[in-house]
Automatic annotation (TrEMBL):
PANTHER family the record matches: PEPTIDE N-GLYCANASE PNGASE -RELATED, PUTATIVE-RELATED
Protein name in the entry: Glycoside hydrolase family 92 protein
GO MF term (any one): peptide-N4-(N-acetyl-beta-glucosaminyl)asparagine amidase activity
Transmembrane domains' residue ranges: none
Domain Glycosyl hydrolase family 92 N-terminal: 50-307
Annotated keywords: Signal
Length: 823
């Protein structure tokens, strides 16, 4: 999802600066110190040290560089006054710090999500007296960070830890458990009145209502919360916090001074909001002054619990998870969890640019930020099942994120699936997009379906061991496929029209949702039904398998064979909007691309009637992952298909910022030209993805882009809800995946690896032969999941000849629905 990307690109021309090179040098030095000499099984001992968290923190990536556990609920980080502060932070030093808040998302568009309960520290702020000024408001707290000699801000981040030096001389350090954070504020020596601010209401959207706040003047404990607006939907949610302070290495005692603040005015001795005569302010919280640690350096620890249930639960979360206020213990525990998880993927690095190694682990890292584990924090119903949130959105992540997770983290995958099913059982449909416990707007369709399908196809034999109920999973899929929801803008599909016509017509208005994105929704519904057919077949439900496979073929219903691209009569046949009577409307195939003469965008907009969401008709015409063989036929055969793919790249219709384009570089495989896919996918990495802070072309979309880059670097591309991975060559002489549920490691070896061409062009990178466990494998174009179940050694024979093929016979081509399917 990009949404705000265009605005940001316009604002952020400064994003192409010297810091790209500086980051590269920084990552080079970390990499070389962390990689062991090759020859040992574990070549990357500390993969967490290779993660660059600042990738995408400028230029609209909206990535979150703060501290979190893998899929942790608390994501504590710096907030800045940047217009692109969706994850709080901005890597550009011109933007100032405004607080350190406990909750964020990663890589989203929409309005700023979460960004709640900011803490702040003052060395001084005038008098603490009623209606004396102290710059407590968010605008008042606008403080530059210190800069390094490189011109970059003096900020540091590694998995589970973030630190910054503010120009006030205060150093801030942050680390996290699942539902709590611990902050350390180190004041300049000689600070006589160290003061701490707790901000209850600022959420980055100024949306708060009904604030509550209580301050214990003995202990200094502050608890409170408010109601806030969701970021990408119509709903609201309530959230609560509980903050305790402790001296780091000294007795802090009771606060010397305490009170509330409203805007820039402290209200001394006020311990709760009921005492305040002001009716409503969206700028309020608590202010406390503590005694310093003698005349030396004062470090104050702030332990912050968060809850979506109550302030009491926010306190108990903090007490349970950080009983000891031990910052270093929490930090090293977070690091260890990340290191173990990331270390399940191992690479050999001979002849590999260290920047590529860092790009792999940084990208893989970002696939484990969202969705977040909110188990125990669901205010809407009680359940013993896991509860995950921050599905933002499944439309972004279903294509690659869960397949990457399937390779190395099936336990988390299973818990997420259980959480999705539980939501369906209580709300009727699987979530498409969800944040802060509220339903968000759907983007393409019911994209929880391919996620459940992916889990079931890959792990059905382990489903009961992982506590995933096959019948509940199937029932959840059928609800999406068959039942029209009260409002398909928020969940489910326009199911009745889909069942009646086999496409979503442009000209039929129903009361229960907005009649937009009809063509892209048709394509998404077809793919989702394909994933349901895959599950049905495994469950032995033959009739359903056939029924949904047939519905998966409905993509042809919006294919108009006569539509051409203006000025390119040879590019003929396009997905187009269709009326209920069967006739077609016309949307310029260039619509929403950079070549669109009208420069239109296809973001979420209830007034759009063009039929497409975040992608041009040219891009969407390639979007039939379940049946590329049929698509090739519709487009006039292999050569015409290849010409069209080349046209898409050469004429700049490929859109690296948006998910519908993600598989296009790999599509040459289906036309028996895998070398062209290898080269295109490598060119895409070279052109658009790197380890600098502007190294993402658009929003990270909750790790969707991270997972896509990780697959490209691994030389694989997944097709969700199948056993198929398209095969190219990895950027490493060897890459392996340890899968805990199978207890097996699968290794892909590029036997005659000679390094990666820097611009992605040429090189000895084309696959001309494959062996699995020493036995020749029948295709150079795809691997079967079986290789990963067994823990195989996959050996690739590389050549510099781009004219390689998939191999002999039609079985060497990757499967498609119309050529026999995926059984
Ligand atoms: C750091 O650099 C930025 C951008 O040049 C500047 O706005 C900011 O004031 C600097 N910080 C300090 C403490 O000088
Ligand atoms: C950051 O703070 C500095 C110093 O107060 C100020 O000059 C600058 O305008 C601020 N930058 C922003 C983006 O607010
Ligand atoms: C901040 O300053 C301290 C010294 O006071 C230094 O050790 C640290 O590296 C600096 N940078 C960060 C991000 O903490
Ligand atoms: C701080 O320093 C002053 C002057 O040296 C001394 O009188 C005072 O006792 C010191 N205070 C503490 C708390 O150590
Ligand atoms: C969940 O259970 C608790 C404890 O019994 C109860 O107080 C709460 O109201 C329940 N929540 C919901 C949404 O039913
Ligand atoms: C599955 O459920 C059982 C019974 O509640 C529990 O003992 C077991 O730990 C669960 N396993 C997983 C992987 O969640
Ligand atoms: C495409 O053009 C052919 C030949 O003119 C015509 O027979 C056919 O009906 C057209 N199809 C559509 C969908 O317009
Ligand atoms: C047909 O498409 C045009 C161009 O996008 C649009 O202006 C018009 O509203 C569409 N007609 C209907 C009935 O949707
Ligand atoms: C890094 O990637 C960004 C985003 O695609 C691009 O704009 C920038 O030019 C790249 N930088 C380098 C040094 O390649
Ligand atoms: C890519 O790099 C190779 C080797 O340096 C060079 O020969 C070739 O011209 C480059 N191609 C492009 C498209 O930049
Ligand atoms: C690949 O095929 C093209 C077209 O047939 C040919 O021009 C080219 O020389 C071939 N490349 C190699 C390395 O054989």
């Amino acid at each position: 999802m990009k949404k705000l990307t265009f605005v940001l690109l316009a604002l952020c021309t400064w994003g192409f600066g010297a810091n790209a090179d500086v980051n590269l040098i920084a990552s080079l030095s970390t990499v070389s110190s962390a990689i062991q000499p090759s020859g040992t099984t574990v070549t990357i001992k500390d993969p967490a040290s290779l993660v660059n968290l600042f990738i995408g923190t400028r230029n609209g990536g909206h990535t979150f560089p703060g501290a979190t556990l893998p899929h942790g609920m608390v994501k504590v980080g710096m907030d800045t006054n940047s217009p692109g502060n969706h994850a709080g932070y901005d890597g550009d030093p011109q933007f100032n710090a405004t607080g350190f808040s406990q909750l964020h998302d990663d890589g989203t568009g929409g309005a700023v999500p979460l960004s709640l309960f900011k803490l702040w520290a003052f060395t001084s702020c005038g008098q603490f007296d009623t209606f004396e000024e102290c710059q407590t408001s968010i605008a008042g707290r606008n403080v530059p960070r210190k800069n390094l000699s490189t011109g970059l801000p003096d900020d540091f981040a590694e998995p589970g830890y973030f630190a910054s030096n503010l120009s006030t001389g205060i150093r801030v350090e942050l680390t996290a458990t699942r539902r709590a954070a611990i902050h350390r504020y180190t004041f300049p020596s000689g600070t006589r009145n160290p003061r701490m601010v707790v901000d209850i209401t600022n959420d980055g959207q100024q949306s708060s209502t009904d604030p509550i706040m209580d301050l214990d003047s003995e202990t200094g404990r502050v608890s409170g919360g408010a109601s806030f607006a969701a970021s990408f939907g119509p709903g609201r949610y309530r959230a609560f916090t509980c903050v305790d302070f402790k001296g780091d290495g000294f007795e802090l005692g009771s606060p010397r001074e305490f009170g509330a603040w409203l805007g820039n005015f402290p209200v001394r001795q006020t311990t709760n909001l009921h005492q305040l005569y002001t009716s409503f302010r969206d700028e309020l919280g608590s202010l406390l002054t503590f005694a310093p640690n003698g005349n030396g350096t004062t470090s104050i620890l702030a332990r912050v619990g968060v809850s979506f249930i109550s302030p009491e639960q926010a306190c108990s979360n903090a007490e349970e998870e950080i009983p000891d206020f031990d910052f270093e213990r929490v930090k090293s525990s977070a690091w260890a969890q990340w290191n173990e998880l990331l270390g399940r993927i191992q690479v050999k690095t001979d002849n590999v640019d260290p920047e590529i190694v860092s790009l792999l682990y940084s990208s893989s890292y970002r696939t484990h930020i969202s969705p977040a584990d909110y188990t125990g924090e669901n205010p809407k119903w009680n359940s013993t099942e896991p509860y995950y949130d921050s599905f933002y959105c499944n439309w972004d992540t279903y294509r690659t994120l869960y397949s990457w997770m399937a390779l190395h983290d099936p336990d988390t995958f299973a818990r997420i699936v259980r959480g999705l099913i539980n939501i369906q059982q209580h709300e009727g449909w699987l979530p498409e997009c969800r944040g802060a416990t509220a339903q968000h707007f759907i983007q393409g369709g019911s994209n929880g379906d391919p996620i459940l399908g992916e889990f079931f196809v890959k792990f059905h034999e382990h489903a009961s061991a992982l506590n995933v109920s096959a019948s509940a999973l199937y029932a959840a899929l059928l609800a999406d496929a068959e039942d029209q929801p009260p409002n398909w803008d928020l969940q489910g599909r326009q199911a009745n029209m889909w069942k009646k016509l086999g496409y979503i017509p442009s000209d039929v208005w129903e009361p229960s949702g907005t009649n937009t994105k009809q063509v892209s929704r048709t394509l998404e519904y077809a793919f989702s039904d394909f994933t349901i057919s895959q599950v049905a077949k495994i469950l032995g439900k033959k009739a359903d398998g056939t029924k949904y496979a047939k519905r998966a073929g409905n993509f042809v219903n919006v294919f108009n064979p006569n539509t051409t691209v203006p000025g390119h009569d040879d590019i003929k046949g396009m997905m187009q909007p269709r009326f209920a009577d069967g006739t077609f409307n016309f949307t310029d195939p260039r619509h929403c691309s950079v070549n669109d003469p009208e420069q239109s965008t296809c973001f979420l907009n209830a007034a759009n009637v063009d039929g497409f969401y975040e992608g041009s008709p040219i891009v969407y015409t390639q979007y039939v992952p379940q049946d590329t063989a049929r698509l090739i036929q519709l487009q006039g055969g292999n050569q015409k298909f290849i010409d069209r793919l080349n046209f898409i790249f050469n004429e700049n219709f490929f859109d690296s910022t948006d998910e519908p384009s993600q598989q296009i570089p790999f599509m040459y495989h289906y036309a028996n030209r895998p070398g062209l896919s290898t080269q295109r996918s490598r060119q895409v990495i070279a052109e658009f993805y790197n380890t600098s802070s502007n190294g993402l072309p658009g929003n990270d979309d909750s790790g969707a882009m991270g997972s896509y880059v990780a697959f490209y670097l691994a030389g694989l591309y997944p097709l969700p809800a199948t056993r198929q991975f398209l095969l190219s060559s990895p950027f490493f002489p060897e890459i392996s995946f340890f899968n805990p549920i199978f207890g097996k490691t699968t290794t892909i070896k590029a036997n005659n690896f000679k390094g990666n061409p820097t611009n992605g062009t040429g090189g000895t990178v084309f696959v001309k032969g494959v062996k699995i466990d020493g036995v020749p494998w029948g295709s150079n174009c795809f691997l079967d999941w079986n290789a990963f179940i067994k823990g195989s050694v996959v050996e690739l024979d590389l050549t510099d000849n781009i004219n390689v093929t998939c191999g002999k016979g039609s079985d060497a081509l990757p499967p498609s629905l119309s050529t026999g399917g995926y059984d």
